[in-house]
Specification:
- The complex is a heterodimer.
- Chain A is an all-alpha fold.
- Chain A folds into two domains: 18-108, DnaJ domain (Helix Hairpins), CATH 1.10.287.110; 136-211, Monooxygenase (Up-down Bundle), CATH 1.20.1280.20.
- Chain A has seven helices and two strands.
- Chain A is elongated.
- Classes of the chains: A mainly alpha, B alpha+beta.
């Protein structure tokens, strides 16, 4: 499993040079995943999720575009395409496919995407489990919403509360698009932290809604 | 012999002996099927009895013979002790799991002392579920070989989506024992979606509700332009139509006990009661009520059952599947209204109550325009074709259960969450909790619960050779990899020293490598009856091929022969046909060789005619081109 790597965006963008094909020993361009001579798949190089899916490194991305790229890459690299190949080629294709799945699952989630883009800049979003929140205003807001969720005891109350929280989630996502476009990573880290809390509240609200009486739709 | 295989120009030659044909196999709890696909048109292979379904029932007779399918099921009433059915419910299971399976199990299990997989006593043999399944798979393989006229050694085998790692590994082992290389384990609902989707050019979100004999699966898929993407899957690997049978059988037995008092029942009695219950269930799919006679313990009792009582008996079981569906919809983050169609799979979806409840949840009439018994095998065959011949189809599946590691306080730290697309590889770092700790126990578990003991234990290993450090300083990186078959491999690496250990997860209740080796050796040497049977089948297939070629040649070119020669050929053909009906391999081979000898002259004359025809009016270049085509 390739780890995140800030320095080498090698595969798609900055890569130059070549490496010998493991199968026929021909020198293969680092950018090429297949040997131009024998056609055999080459082990994946360290890369990032945007490069893996052939996407520009922008926070704003459309679901349709992401999905199209994902399916396109899996059509080429999925192990099903290598079912009749020797074990080593199958193993390499599995590495690609696992990386592509990881890229897709990270980038399609607005919170994971923000955190991932910050990590590419060497910034870890604070406020993980056990961390204290630096921003007391955010903390107050979260605690207030949390109490509202615990206190809600009708479907209507919960529905309007969920709408309020989901609006906060959506607003944070829009804000992230703006600050990432400006390369303002410090502000991005703050907004990402807000998005993390709002996302968690949204999940809590959904769970609580499920346990309210009379909710099952049959 | 190949001299007789002359093709008319433009005629498609029959598949060559060595040509790669992989089959699709649905290894079911109640019935199994094998299907073959060519040019995206899958078809179920029928047995000699003309049936598509092979009952997943095996009888081990006293004389060492083995009956599989309908013949084995027929033994159930008279001689239940030698018959085993529903063995899929035991795949990958240990004694503790089996204890928790409710109801009377129609199996006599060998007590186990040292862990490992359960063993079933049947007739005078003691067998693992893997071996019994391999016998069913071998029968399906033979069925396909009979139809194709050549060997089949690659297959796509389906498994319930909710099968855990142990049950998946057991299935793969069974195929290996049967001489089949598994190209891919495909989840049953995914296979069904593939068959349904391609047949109906379906696009959008679909739910596949698959209630089989022993397992329940629900998958939500997004289908578009040849991509079948599973969004979420869920199920219950211990819930199926068998449980409906158990409910009815218990109801009958309770009635019987009221009428004639309690009597002790043998395993054979339980098997018989279940057969009666199954008949009652099937009949109540179309009738309002019926009468049945229970014949157990040497006494007969009469029972009436109507739909109302039946639905009361199984209502809770059906409700359990509906609750799972609701949870999976949540996991997939879709509502019932988003679902374009619900496809019914599995024989148990014939029960009207099941259909009604599914319709109620999804708010639309479920689709059943492909035979719910066949759709999984058809999808498996399509995937087998895709994997051998190449295809634009893309199946993107997920892992049904979360995978994790035991941490301090018997808690589970999840490494891979359920419904993650596979293949997947995830790493997590762990550290030591004592100064100078040199080893770390790694306990791999599968399931959704917080505490270790509520989950399935998959494997344990010890990571050794950690250099002496203060507590919390070592960095041990544990990587979980799930391949496209849904099978897990775990590796661990200590980062300061670079020591690495890779462990192929062998389920705690699986077969050890030694056991597997022994079984393979058994199948080769001691399993003489299996071998004889296999060789006989192969000889029959070859004899059938020779006879077929001669018959075709007689139709095409009988004018090359005089009456005496035609008579001799027909006599030889009859001898082969008679030998094929019997079970004497030497006789099959002898008559087949005789036919070959008798037809040599005929073959030579046909060859001459073929060359003459080819030469006639053909210019030299075209002829040369054809000769080089024929002799690659």
């Amino acid at each position: 499993m390739a780890t995140i790597d800030n320095t080498s965006r090698s595969q798609g963008t900055g890569a130059s040079g070549s490496r010998p094909c493991w199968s026929c020993n021909e020198e293969v361009n680092l950018r090429s995943p297949f040997c131009h001579l024998c056609g055999v798949i080459q082990p994946p190089l360290p890369s990032d999720h945007f490069v893996r899916l052939g996407l520009p490194r922008n926070y704003d991305l459309s679901d349709d575009n992401l999905e199209r790229q994902y399916f396109g890459f899996q059509r080429t690299y999925h192990p099903d395409r290598f079912a009749q190949k020797p074990p080593r080629e199958q193993a390499i294709s599995m590495e690609y496919a696992a990386n592509i799945n990881d890229a897709y699952n990270t980038l399609r989630n607005p919170l994971l995407r923000a955190e991932y883009m910050l990590r590419l800049q060497g910034i870890e979003v604070a406020g993980g489990d056990g961390d204290t929140v630096a921003d007391p205003e955010l903390l107050m807001e979260v605690m207030e919403l949390n109490e509202l969720i615990v206190g809600a005891n009708t479907i209507d109350q919960m529905t309007s509360l969920r709408e309020r929280i989901n609006a906060e989630v959506a607003a944070s996502e829009i804000a992230l698009g703006v600050v990432f476009a400006e390369n303002d990573f410090d502000r991005a880290a703050n907004v990402a932290l807000r998005l993390r809390y709002m996302t968690r509240l949204s999940e809590q609200a959904q769970q609580s809604a499920g346990s309210l009486p009379g909710n099952r739709k049959n | 012999m190949q001299l007789l295989d002359i093709h008319e120009p433009g005629e498609t030659p029959r598949p060559h002996e060595n040509e790669l044909v992989a089959v699709g196999i649905d290894l079911g709890t109640t019935n199994s099927l094998v299907a073959i696909s060519s040019q995206n048109r899958p078809e179920v292979v029928r047995g000699e009895d003309g049936e598509t379904l092979l009952p997943s029932v095996v009888a081990y007779l006293g004389d060492g013979r083995m009956l599989i399918g309908t013949e084995a099921r027929a033994k159930l009433a008279a001689d239940p002790e030698v018959v085993v059915s529903s063995v899929k419910r035991l795949m990958g299971r240990g004694p503790e799991d089996v204890k928790s399976l409710a109801g009377h199990l129609p199996f006599e299990l060998e007590p186990i002392h040292d862990g490992g997989m359960v063993r079933v006593k049947v007739g005078h043999r003691t067998l693992t579920p893997v071996e019994i399944s391999s016998h069913i798979l071998a029968a399906l393989k033979a069925r396909a070989e009979q139809a194709l006229g050549h060997n089949v050694d690659q297959a796509v085998v389906t498994v319930p989506a909710y099968f855990d790692d142990a049950a998946r590994t057991a299935t793969k082992d069974a195929a290996r024992l049967a001489g089949l290389q598994v190209l891919r384990l495909v989840n049953e609902p995914t296979a069904a979606a593939l068959a349904y989707g391609l047949d109906n050019a379906a696009e959008g979100l679909y739910a596949i509700y698959d209630l089989g004999g022993g397992t329940f699966d629900i998958s939500i898929l997004k289908m578009q332009k040849g991509v079948f993407q599973v969004l979420a899957t869920g199920g219950d690997a211990t819930l199926g139509g068998d449980d409906f049978d158990h409910a009815i059988a218990e109801h009958f037995l309770a009635e019987r006990a009221q009428k004639i008092g309690q009597t002790s029942l043998s395993i054979g009695d339980v098997k018989r009661a279940l057969v009666t219950a199954q008949l009652a269930k099937e009949s109540l799919s179309s009738q309002k009520k019926g009468n049945w006679v229970l014949d157990v313990g040497g006494q007969q009792s009469r029972h009436t059952l109507n739909v109302k009582v039946f639905e009361d008996l199984v209502g809770d079981l059906v409700e359990r599947t509906i609750q799972v569906c609701a949870n999976v919809l949540d996991d997939a983050k879709v509502s019932p209204a988003d679902i374009k169609g619900v496809v019914l799979v599995g024989g148990s979806t014939r029960v009207p109550l099941v259909r009604r409840q599914v319709q109620k949840l999804f708010g639309k009439e479920p689709l059943a325009n492909i035979d719910p018994d066949q759709v999984v095998a058809l999808g498996a065959a399509l995937q087998a074709e895709a994997l051998t011949r190449g295809s634009d189809i893309l199946l993107l599946d997920v892992t049904p259960l979360s995978l994790g590691i035991e941490t301090m306080g018997s808690m589970v730290e999840k490494v891979i969450q359920r419904n993650t697309s596979i293949p997947v590889s995830k790493a997590q770092e762990f550290t030591t909790y004592q100064d100078g700790q040199s080893a770390m126990a790694v306990h791999v578990v599968q399931g959704e619960r917080e505490m270790v003991e509520s989950n399935r234990s998959l494997a344990r290993f010890e990571f050794r050779g950690i250099p002496p450090m203060v507590a919390g300083a070592a960095r041990i990186r544990v990587t979980f990899t799930v391949d496209a078959d849904g099978l897990l491999t775990v590796s661990a690496r200590e980062d300061t020293t670079g020591i690495e250990q890779v462990v192929e997860v062998k389920p705690s209740y699986g077969l050890t490598d030694d056991e597997m080796t022994n079984m393979l050796r058994d199948a080769m040497t001691h399993g003489r009856e299996d071998m004889t049977w296999r060789l006989l089948t192969e000889s029959k297939v070859e004899a059938e091929r020779v006879a077929g070629a001669v018959r075709a040649a007689l139709v095409a070119d009988s004018d090359l022969l005089n009456e005496g020669e035609i008579y001799a050929l027909n006599t030889a053909l009859d001898a082969v046909a008679k030998a094929i009906e019997g079970d004497d391999r030497e006789e099959v081979e002898k008559t087949s060789h005789e036919l070959d000898d008798v037809s040599q002259d005929f073959a030579a004359r046909r060859m001459d005619r073929g060359i003459e025809t080819a030469l006639k009016g053909a210019d030299v270049t075209a002829l040369e081109a054809r000769i080089s085509d024929d002799n690659p």
